[in-house]
Amino acid sequence: MLGGMQDWELRVSGLLDHAARSDPAREIVTHWADGARTRTTWADLRRDALRVVQALRRLDIYPEDRVATLAMNHSRHLASWFGITGAGCVLHTINPRLFDDQLEYIVNHARDRVLIYDVAFHPIVERMRRRWPTIEHYVCFDDGRYAVTFADWIAVEDGDAMWDMNDERAPCMLCYTSGTTGDPKGVLYSHRSNVLHTLAMIQPACLAIEPRSCVLPVVPMFHANNWGLPWACAATGAKLVYSQVNEPVVLCDLMEAENVTHVGGVPTVWFAMFEHIDRTGAAMPGFKLALSGGSAVPVAVVERLMRAGVRVVQAWGMTETSPIATITYEPPGWDEMTFEQQVACKSRQGRAVYGSEVRTVGLSGAEGAADRDGATSGKLQVRGPWTIRRYFEAEEDAVGPDNWFDTGDVASISASGEVRLTDRTKDLIKSGGEWISSVELENAAVGHPEVLEAAAIGIAHPRWDERPVLVVVRRPGASVSAETLRAFLAGRVAKWWLPDAIEFVAELPHTGTGKISKKDLRAQFRDYRLPD
Amino acid sequence: MLGGMQDWELRVSGLLDHAARSDPAREIVTHWADGARTRTTWADLRRDALRVVQALRRLDIYPEDRVATLAMNHSRHLASWFGITGAGCVLHTINPRLFDDQLEYIVNHARDRVLIYDVAFHPIVERMRRRWPTIEHYVCFDDGRYAVTFADWIAVEDGDAMWDMNDERAPCMLCYTSGTTGDPKGVLYSHRSNVLHTLAMIQPACLAIEPRSCVLPVVPMFHANNWGLPWACAATGAKLVYSQVNEPVVLCDLMEAENVTHVGGVPTVWFAMFEHIDRTGAAMPGFKLALSGGSAVPVAVVERLMRAGVRVVQAWGMTETSPIATITYEPPGWDEMTFEQQVACKSRQGRAVYGSEVRTVGLSGAEGAADRDGATSGKLQVRGPWTIRRYFEAEEDAVGPDNWFDTGDVASISASGEVRLTDRTKDLIKSGGEWISSVELENAAVGHPEVLEAAAIGIAHPRWDERPVLVVVRRPGASVSAETLRAFLAGRVAKWWLPDAIEFVAELPHTGTGKISKKDLRAQFRDYRLPD
């Protein structure tokens, strides 16, 4: 026996239908690299997306075929998202910052048949074209010199088409993780996983997106599902603001001019914004909510945002979790907390909402869940309807028994479900049989006003197994010494955690997605000798 | 090809699992009819629900079997909701205000095998027992004189059980509509429809329920899925407050004592609350959100709530829509509206959120959707994943082509999707080839301070087909005359809408769910003659 309610497949095209129906004139604004600003509406974007559906069908691109984009954030890119997924094809968002070998690998692994790209990335296309034999058609979002423009490609269509209405569990989108080890791996979102993730993330405990919201995703569209923000805006009919460039002066101006309420970005976005404000004396933009993710945001940044009246929502997750796994919602008792307690709460990793479940298990691989006592560290695992089961074309599932996915992070969980990340499993430093968290050392170090970036790695030690070395990039013009920094750290971490050495470098190695590459840093320090 | 994400059935037991996991100590408070207040927690409620699962299995009650409740609002009733649905059985919530023939019909139509009831309704059980042959087991929530008590029934179980994990489209709950014509009809919610409705209703545009919320549903648990509030509270781990009785003094005290943030009730709840405040000089309780539904709330009440700083959310829907079909969310431009405009916006029926779709079609049955011009009235239709497809055990679907369900209401829809109800289809008064809205006449009439209730019906007229008669109940001690009331209406409705007669009565007939029964009123006025 089935229930008596209606059957509707949860497809992302239904989100766009809602936006176009509920507020057809609500805008999507784009700031282009050349300084131009253009506006479209949900109704017009829907028509353009349906034209993309027709243009793909004209090229004999079928449902489940992969169609790639290589582009920054703008409304045409957004129209292509809804058009590609609306045709039942799989949207593959390529990160232009990947290395050539990775770019070659993922396009061939995905067997992308079409690539739509920004002309700014034409050098990549030019360089890679011969290594991308599966791509049959190139379309350029913003220039007609090398390929048909997106506008011309869809101009011959009338938008009088129907969305593909396959099963809600059919694939929708493919995002590769840049992978610090081995080849990149493809995470294959389904329509259902994206719609459920959308409904979860608009709730007040998460992003509190509503029809009158105006959202500026600074996070690139090629990063982890654009954090789900385009789907969330469509689901509510919210206004959406995109910028092809990320200069703080442009972003701050957009926030003011477009009455942006929600901004989503990695910590660097907040650093750059405050640096711009401090340098120019510009006013703090009047947005209401800062979604921060990608890596932990320093307490000082959380505090400064909160003092400006901004609601800070730090999210923790990964491409494999769509990406939101936990979020720093305001728990019961929030109003009774001191400001300092609230800042501390917002500086941790938050809690899982319905649809995401977290647990920790013993670091040594012991069976069963670790205590939820807020102290015991363990391997952090996640499961739920928007958590990965199996990577694209993998031979076996990426999860253990009962669907638990191992995140590679180390964390503790409190009785009320609050997660505190302590480190990446492989970045923990083992000293005298105990674990030192490289993340906590680094967070303490970047709290010093003259430190721009810091990374802690373990160096082999005859007696202690490993001891930490801190590698630091000073801020421009700064001259902090190792002794001063060591004294600064002494009050902030356990004494036996203090690094045996502090080394200053001009820059740290980064991965294709902008994270510090511990793997490369360890390689650089392979022959390093600790001071006696 | 399927996406690579995890498969999880959307079952309401998963909502309870989340609540018990995310904040096990968060409370469910009950005020009992005898004045006692008890507290349980989400973790304990989950254990009790699992005991109910075991108790049902012990009685050889199987998945899909119907288990009925006949009870007011309290935590044991809530535990039975999660236990019955968690066992895979179908929860049938019986409205004790139905007439005996209806009570006989629905229990036999549902083939209920178990009934769990409040002792306050023992007279009904005593009276109906012989007419309810399908019921094999009686359990009493709060008294052991006539049947095993709920507490004893589950006390022998240990809660060490698993939820039934059938398909998410399996039935979850059965609510009968009292039906102004014909036999009551059963709406059969699925687990999926309830979970999707839950995710929609917690969003900021709807009820904005988050973990730190505290919700007091004054609406009875036997009314239309309790408006979805128990599921929404579980999905967020919010605190839940129930009262077995509805005296304003008790409700106001609960609101203050338990720091209630959200109150859900029919307009009568707000009338009674303000009457209590005005009479006793009590302070306005400090809740933040008033969810009003069931019937249109007068503008004056909306205004008074809003002046007290309460966010008013008026929802329109019906048992067949789970029940939320449209809701008065704050549209873009809300902050630029005057207070009067905001009050007017909140006094209409609002807009559909993602998952609910509305349209109007011609009153005369013409094909296709009517214009969304905010003026053209038409039959209001709804569809979506929590709208009914077919009544329980009906021979055919309750919907037309493309799943459109005809609500029986008449409305206009604006370009931005705002719905304004003008009447029930069958309550429209046809005069001189034009339609007069009985609802608008009644709303105008109850705007008069001396009018308690008013109902407009059409009386046959030789020239105009029908002409309106307004039937009015005066407030206690009031003495407003027909002439005065007619003059009051003259400035508020079109001249040709003015009733040909105004009749004062001691009371109006009501249906089992507390609505004015136009059917019975028309019967009373069958032989009425209009004045010349």
Describe the structure.
The structure is a homodimer of 532-residue chains. Chain A is an alpha/beta fold and 532 residues long. Chain A has 15 helices and 24 strands. Chain A has helices at residues 12-22, 42-58, 75-86, 100-110, 122-128, 150-155, 191-201, 229-236, 248-257, 267-280, 299-307, 339-347, 438-446, 482-490, 518-524; strands at residues 27-31, 37-41, 66-70, 90-93, 114-117, 137-140, 148-149, 171-177, 185-190, 214-217, 239-243, 262-265, 289-292, 311-317, 324-327, 357-361, 378-383, 405-413, 419-424, 429-431, 434-436, 451-461, 465-474, 501-504. In chain A, the strands form five sheets. In chain A, strands 2-1-11-10-12-13-14-15 form an eight-stranded mixed beta sheet, with helices on both faces. In chain A, strand 18 (405-413) and strand 19 (419-424) form a beta hairpin. In chain A, helix 1 (12-22) crosses helix 8 (229-236), helix 2 crosses helix 3 and helix 9 packs across helix 10 (267-280). The termini of chain A are far apart. The model of chain A has no long low-confidence stretch (mean pLDDT 93). Chains A and B meet through helix 1, strand 9 and helix 7 of A and helix 1, strand 9 and helix 7 of B.
